[in-house]
Amino acid sequence: MPSNVRSTARTAWVAVRATAVFTLVLGLGYTGLITGVGALALPAQANGSLIEVDGEPVGSSLIGQSFTDADGAALPEYFQSRPSAAGDGYDGGASSGSNLGPENEDLIAAIGDRQAAISELDGVPADGIPADAVTASGSGLDPHISPEYARLQVPRVAAARGMSEDEVGRLVDEHTVGRDLGVIGSPVVNVLELNLALDGLEG
Amino acid sequence: MEVWFGIAQVAILVVVLALVHRPLGDWMARVFTSAHDTRVERGLYRVVGVDPRAEQTWTVYLRSVLVFSAVGVLALYLLQRTQQFLPYALGLPAVPEGLAFNTAISFVTNTNWQSYSPELTMGYTVQLAGLMVQNFVSAAVGLAVAVALVRGFARRRTGTLGNFWVDVNRAVWRLLLPLSIVSALVLLAGGVVQNFAGFTEVTTIAGQTQTIPGGPVASQEAIKLLGTNGGGFYNVNSAHPFEDPTAWTSLVEVVLLLVIPFSLPRTFGRMVGDVRQGYVILGVMGVLWIAGVAATMAFELQGAGTAPELAGGALEGKEARFGIPLSAIFAASTTGTSTGAVNAMHDSFTAFGGMVPLINMMLGEVAPGGVGSGLYGILVLAVIAVFIAGLLVGRTPEYLGKKIGPREIKLASLYILVTPAIVLAGTALSFAIPGVRADVESTSIWNPGVHGLSEVVYAFTSAANNNGSAFAGLTANTPWFNTALGVAMLLGRFLPIVLVLALAGSLAKQDAVPATAGTLPTHRPLYAGLLTGVAVIVTALTYFPVLALGPLAEGLS
């Protein structure tokens, strides 16, 4: 056997053993360590920040939901989430953005349709609707809306529930979260948590 | 108004990185120069069968890199192909051949391009025993090659560059693993999940059923960013609330993906015995990074284009909790490094806002670049800059006391030609081969018109530069893209590594030449400006035509 073939074979054997060691220690050991610490010290986060009502999980505070009927029509008594491109909408098994570009005709048409739908549902002019209300998020699972879109929905939700706008508006304010450290990210409202509070079911 | 919050977030990043880069850079210099092996390491070297004191010439070092990577590709391919027999496969079948080929290369080359949707394709065993392990070791390989090049500059009249196996092991055990453990716990506390629960069905308050995914995410998330890998546990990567739950975790993720690349210039300065040389490199990286961040943020806040103007802001594909500035910071940082993770969908960015990440990759990812690959990339440019200065003002081409002769300049020139050749050839072939063109246009391209061309250019730029981000509307899980992008990733990773190690070997052999009046000082702002100019001009000359056909045409029409 020529010597360079022999030394390459020897190197390959070293590489195989090194790969095995890395797989065991990193793949199993490190993952196991983090999983163990998570289960013991941070179980709520490790398991997906699930929200339970009467002992049954109804969702995750980090994963958005649709608040629509079986036909996909908005339920007026609930604050509505952003449009979603994940599966048929907020499918946690198929996260996705729309990936439509800025000049895409389908996207332009969809934005127009969404503005018209919100304009009708909430009785507001179509040109003042916040951008997050008519655009799909990156994940398709965005749990938040902007405080502006939440406030826009207050009169409709209040009317549908027979509550005063002040009462509903106060709940929105309570569920508005500012920027982290005052500057990081954007102010948001968690839609599921807000709707649960409305139902008086805050878990 | 929004722009001030953007500036404040950039300021936080700058302060954190400025505080961390010195201690981390010094630590890395110690890791790679220390003569001491820990007892655990000595045991590992015995098990693996290497002599940690054995020095390697550049050819032996290169052979170790290539063989280790080949074994990695093979192992990852086999794991995917036997997925149905593995525990925690979540009922998923074996990964198909073409996709398994593409994915194995993708993760071993530190690219982490994903032609697939992980939720629907990869079980937990493949993720953690296959993909995550390569997240660690591909980053360690990049570090090893960078360190070998630095030794080439630092050493005098020697034929050797160190020992690859020692460098890789130290990179993993002394650097990446401890940093990953700490980072994973921070992300876990912020809400990133870590479980083996599979998919959980819940009934929502509106009476519908919803699937909540699980998975050992936090552990993989940490090294995904620290190793500038970027392969998401879920389809939408760091836009997914379980990978990146809050605005502050997203800023932490940006820190993680920038921290090693921005600390390596310090390591370089230490190892060549002149920290000022490191500051010049750091300065160039920093200026290019800031420029990319500022441009992306400005274009996205401006929100030009029919759809963003109709909606009242460029929020398509962006998460409410991050907002536009943080999405722009993430996009520019992930493409300035070789990470490719995303917290917003680049395909939906404005024409110019999406062009800046593309240009960041075209720069060769030196702002600040991937773990290791950023440093060796910019050092090659530094060699070119010295040579150009020699031509322009008649200085002797020397860098760090090493003569830049015909052999060195040939290797450096080949290095900067390899990646553009792959990008442009791959893009051209996608449209030049009639059968392929029909398939690309009917199956793969998602957005019609010039934006569709941008999707293909972005894909090859991302693959050849080992970035991994995408204009993700492109359907890449086709025979053409799985094969062509697989080859692009392979060549884009290993041809430059061959050239870098050859350069390192040739430099290490030289004695140091004393600086004379004719030597161009490379620790001054003048040289930093020259190096920045070289990086920008080389990129502009190479890529302007294709940019004009894609994003420029879209943004200006």
Automatic annotation (TrEMBL), chain A:
The chain crosses the membrane at residues 20-42. GO terms for cellular component: plasma membrane. InterPro entries: KdpC. Its main location: membrane. Keywords: ATP-binding, Cell membrane, Ion transport, Membrane, Nucleotide-binding, Potassium, Potassium transport, Transmembrane, Transmembrane helix, Transport. It is found in: Cell membrane. It is a single-pass membrane protein. The system is composed of three essential subunits: KdpA, KdpB and KdpC. Part of the high-affinity ATP-driven potassium transport (or Kdp) system, which catalyzes the hydrolysis of ATP coupled with the electrogenic transport of potassium into the cytoplasm. This subunit acts as a catalytic chaperone that increases the ATP-binding affinity of the ATP-hydrolyzing subunit KdpB by the formation of a transient KdpB/KdpC/ATP ternary complex. HAMAP family: KdpC. Belongs to the KdpC family. This is Potassium-transporting ATPase KdpC subunit. It comes from Agromyces seonyuensis.
From TrEMBL, chain B:
Pfam families: KdpA. GO terms for cellular component: plasma membrane. Keywords: Cell membrane, Ion transport, Membrane, Potassium, Potassium transport, Transmembrane, Transmembrane helix, Transport. It is found in: Cell membrane. InterPro entries: KdpA. Its main location: membrane. It comes from the Bacteria. GO terms for molecular function: P-type potassium transmembrane transporter activity; potassium ion binding. NCBIfam families: kdpA. HAMAP family: KdpA. Part of the high-affinity ATP-driven potassium transport (or Kdp) system, which catalyzes the hydrolysis of ATP coupled with the electrogenic transport of potassium into the cytoplasm. This subunit binds the extracellular potassium ions and delivers the ions to the membrane domain of KdpB through an intramembrane tunnel. The system is composed of three essential subunits: KdpA, KdpB and KdpC. This is Potassium-transporting ATPase potassium-binding subunit.
